[in-house]
Structure formats: structure tokens, C-alpha cells
Amino acid sequence: MIVKTLLAAIVAGLIAGVFMTAAQELRVTPLILHAEEFEGGEQPAAGHEEHSSLNGVSPLEKLLAFVSPITPAYAHEGGHEEESGILFGMSRFSGTLLANLVTGAGFSLLLAGISIMTGHRITLANGALWGACGWLAVHMLPALGLPPELPGFPAADLGERQVWWALTVLLSAAGLYLLALRGELGSKVAGLVLIAAPHAYGAPQPLDISSNVPAVLGAEFAVAALATTLAFWIVLGIVSGFINDRVVKAG
Q1: Segment 6-29, tens digit of pLDDT
Q2: pLDDT averaged over the chain?
Q3: Local structure of 49: helix, strand or coil
Q4: Does position 4 have pLDDT exceeding 90, yes or no?
Q5: Keywords, A to Z (predicted)?
Q6: Dist CA 151 CA 7 (whole Å)
Q7: Any bridge partners for residue 80, and if so which?
């Protein structure tokens, strides 16, 4: 039963990863490429190579950028993406697809593990709720302090952001568990306290918030990024529940 549940989670994660890639290509990636034109304070000239602010950074920062969520943007030349990306010479689209497949499978396995440990199965009836809770813990609640940022936007120290984001995700997940799966009043109060704690402390913020990127573009990106990840998690939860009902339960 456990093996079938984990295999079903991997399949659901891969399906959600493909969906996420399509959604990002339609809504998120164009905004990133548009924002890169403002880096350096001027439009990039033809034949001049521009690099996204997400290039040349550590793999952990790229992971943080994805789950924040931001699609990794690859270097492009003269308005066209390079044939060689940062992952084994793949194009930007191929690298993004691979990252989404791996991340989708990872998040799906995480949900499956939590459902097994708590004794609450993911079904078609509650799959959307599981997905919504995952989105809240990983994306929406951390975004209250560290919203998705376009290349060229100012940001605080990377290490501080990583620590705050990781702690916020863990506390938010624990708080949502207490709110959604525990019936005691004390548990629900503790859940609210855990969710509010990192925001009461405050997320690290940059000292200088000036940017060449228009604020309206940054706001549009934040909305698009959070909307696409919400759709990703809802699809992940529903597909996981559907597969569990049809395959795991039948077995």
C-alpha cells in the first residue's frame, strides 16, 4: 500500500510539473524576460549579452527562487534565449521543465508522506484542500514577508532570506496541520500562533528599495507567480486524490 501511494505521488507530481511549466511559460516567464530589459537602467542593445539576476548564483538560491516562486531565467542574447542553459546545455524551457518535474514529484512525495504519517488519505474529495494547504505553507504565507521578486528588484541578504523562508514554511505547515487536522481548541490556537510567529518577527528587507523595474510590473509578476503556483498545487492535490481513489484504494 505504501509503495503504491508513493508511486502514485510521483505520477501526480510529474503531471502537475508539466502543467506548471505550461502555466509559467504563458504567464510568468514573459514578465521575467521583460523585467530583464530594465536591468542596468537601460534597454539591452542588439548583440549585447544580458544575464538574469538569477544566473551565476548558488543552486540553493535557484531553488529558493523557484519555490518563492520564480521560474529560473536563463541568459539570453539579443532578445533570444541561448541554446546552452545552466543545466547540461539544455534550453531555458527544457531546464525549467526538468526543474518543475523534479520539484513537482518532490512536493507530491512530501504530501504523500504527510498523509501517511497523519493517517489522513488524500482523496479526490479532499485533494484540492490538501493542495491549497501546500500552497499556503510553501508560497502564500511566506510571500506575505518575501513576495516573488523579478530580476532587478532589490533584496536582502540571501542567507537571511533563506533562513526566514525555511522557518516560515516549517512553522506554517505545522500551524496548518494543527488548524486543519486537530480538533482541540488549544491546538487551533497554537496553530495560529505558529503561523503568525515569523511575520511578527519580520522578514529581512533590503536597505535600498530603489529599482529600475516598474513597480506595476513587479506587482503583476507577484500575482501571476502566486496564481500559477496555486493552480499547480490544486492540480497536484486533485490528481493525487484521483490516482489514490482509482489505483491505491483498488489495490
Answers
A1: 899 999 999 999 999 999 899 888
A2: 80
A3: strand
A4: no
A5: Membrane, Transmembrane, Transmembrane helix
A6: 36
A7: 77
The x, y and z cell numbers of residue 80, run together, are 533570444
Is 70 within the bounds of a domain?
no
CA distances 94 to 18, 23, 89, 185, Å, are 11, 14, 10, 48
The answer to whether residue 186 is domain-embedded is no
Q: 65, 54 in Cβ contact below 8 A?
A: yes
H-helix or E-strand spanning residue 31: helix 29-36
Backbone angles phi, psi at 77, to 5 degrees: -125, 125
Query: What CA–CA distance (Å, rounded) separates 70 from 134?
Result: 17
Half-sphere exposure of 12 (CA within 13 A, CB side): 35
What stretch of H or E contains 87? Answer: none
**Residue 248 — pLDDT band, cuts 50, 70, 90?**
low
- Model-wide pTM > 0.90: no
Overall domain count for the chain: 1
Per-residue confidence (pLDDT) for residue 37, from 0 to 100: 76
Kindly indicate the confidence band of residue 59, based on its pLDDT and cuts at 50, 70 and 90: very low
For residues 54 and 44, what is the distance between their CA atoms, to the nearest angstrom?
17
> Which domain covers residue 96, as residue numbers?
2-40+91-153+211-250
Q: Could you identify the residue written with the cell 509559467?
A: 24
Give the tens place of pLDDT for each residue, 70-106: 333 333 333 444 444 455 566 778 888 898 999 999 9
Domain contains 180:
no
Contact 105, 14 (CB under 8 A): yes
Using CA atoms, how far apart are residues 43 and 213, in angstroms rounded to an integer?
Answer: 11
